[in-house]
Amino acid sequence: MIPAVRALARAAMAARPVPLADVQARAELLARFDRRYLVPVEVFAAFAAELTDRRRPGGPFAALCINGRRWFRYRSLHYDTPDLRSFHDHRQGLPLRYTIRERHYEDIGERQFEVKLTGRRGETVKHRRPLLPGDPALGAAPRGFLTAVLDRAYGLAAPTDLDGALETAYTRATFVADGRRITCDAALRCRDPESGRTVRADGGLVLVEIRTAGRPTGTDRLTDADPLTDADRLLHGHGVRAAAFTRYCGGLSALRPDLAADHWRQAVRTAFPTAV
After folding, report:
1. How many angstroms separate the first and last alpha carbons of the chain?
2. pLDDT of 153-184, one tens digit each?
3. Which fold has domain 3-271?
4. Where is the VTC domain (predicted)?
5. What is the CA radius of gyration of the chain?
6. N or C, which end of the chain is more exposed by having fewer CB within 10 Å?
7. 217-232: per-residue pLDDT in tens?
């Protein structure tokens, strides 16, 4: 087993289990602020133990559990235009940007068509629509949903020339407390549908994303200067700082190094050391 996946499994099994309905009630966070960290597996093990310690002030984080499982396989296909409009909007940090993807929850057989927006205060806002078995992700209904979301949120027309730009797969464990959710991803694999080339992330790293419902500052995006959650402080105490990294932009940059932007180049090198 890949070291990072083994660490996820151990952390999830050590935590108190919580069902999906409780996670959605306590911390669904379809609109949220987040920070991402690329965490060495040894640090992750200590971090997770501190989070889930039953003696933790304020109570421990619990682990999402569905049908007895506490870690899950995810697959996503990210869509973009031929000129990678969505990718370059993120690369330039444009205020009105979005990501379009089809997500497959492999262990529970669920598919979702999702549109992730960057809000006017820098928050992430996710809109999603279930896909039934056999439904094409870019069929009439999902395209109508995309059109409505972009028009309502940004006043933008939806792109009509979408195609698969990046496939991602990884294993995830999710830890939750009231109003807070921490997703932990390992064994990230990215594939370029056009070339067929694949890159794999460092098996000794866990991508940790700390999500909260809000933050007390009015700046455009979270930085290390913003007030920290207790989970952020734990990672900072281990010498780990937030990384400019997303699975879509990071994976595509690793597969096509000419696309990498300066502000996330180091994070891409850390996540995919054999690719860059």
Report:
1. 24
2. 999 999 999 999 999 999 999 999 877 889 99
3. Hypothetical Protein Pfu-838710-001 (2.40.320)
4. 68-255
5. 18
6. N
7. 333 344 444 568 889 9
pTM of the complete model: 0.90
Domain boundaries, the chain: 3-271
The pLDDT value recorded for residue 184 is 98
